[in-house]
Amino acid sequence: MHRRTLLALVVAALPVAASRPVHAQAWPTQPVKIVVPAPAGSSLDIVVRLMSDKLKERWGQPVVVENKAGAGGMLGTDVAAKAAPDGHTMVLSFNGPISFAPFMYAKMPYDPAKDLLPVVMTTSQPNVLAVNANVPAANVKEFVAWAKAKPGGMNYSSLGKGSSSHLSMELFLADAGVAGTHVPYNGSPPSAMAVAQGEVDAAMMVAPAMLPHVQAGRVKLLAVTSAQRPDSLKSLPTMAEAGYPNVEALAWNGLFVPAGTPAAVVERINADVNAVLRDADVRAKLDGAGMTPVGGTAAEFRAAVAADTQRWGAIINRIGLKIE
Prior knowledge:
Elements: H1 2-19, H2 22-26, E1 32-36, H3 43-59, E2 63-67, H4 74-81, E3 89-94, H5 95-104, H6 112-115, E4 116-126, E5 128-132, H7 140-149, E6 154-158, H8 164-176, E7 180-184, H9 188-196, E8 202-205, H10 211-215, E9 219-224, E10 250-258, H11 263-277, H12 280-288, E11 292-293, H13 298-319
Parallel strand pairs: 1-2, 1-3, 6-7, 6-8
Antiparallel strand pairs: 3-10, 4-10, 4-11, 5-8, 5-9
Helix pairs in contact: 3-11, 5-13
């Protein structure tokens, strides 16, 4: 009787044990590397460093942040695309190297749809239209009039060719009928500095790197590219309110792992990042930097990436933007 009872208990426990994700239990077995395809001080860098300590606590392994900027985010994204599919190397990538690049570059070192798996969207935020303080414009309408009249045309910085910063400005200029010279920089800090120092007239980029220059009186913000005014930038009109309803763009970022990474590991990373994004301290710091935490399932992130890719592919083809 005792043996039958023991056997029954063992058999009853088998489905539970079998249902546990074996790969997730074993992961991580070594330090986890998160590649940031942007320089230190960028919005991507801020997101990863806010999360890394809390993820280290959850994972019981060091979290190594590696900044690898260049080629509009493609260099860093390629590192993850070619890494071992075991969940120990991932990248916090963004619109540019994932949704935009396939339509602009004839050749890419990776295929976003085949070589990478979306895990979780971390933040999403609008770009802001920022101009040097000496530009004689207090709103978008005045900026367009000034840019059209400026001898030689206006120039603008971006985070790099093919970035959301670049694409959003090109969409705006096409809609406004304004000619502009693109001056790409390697990330948001130098792009923002170029506007502040008057090396360029304007930029369209996420707010964090621009806000210190606004506070110093060297940059003016004119509008946001979201459909509604975000809580952190309530005083700014949307581009739709300024007369350009087509200029709607959100700069998202999220974690991707190499294709072939076990589903259980993807689920574990997704669950832990969602928990960190719900942390009150993390949310407060992201909001203070002008970024909105998102989270959600891997399936929701895949759907968002697919929708963004479809929308911007049509826009890129319409404005004819190609990069060698």
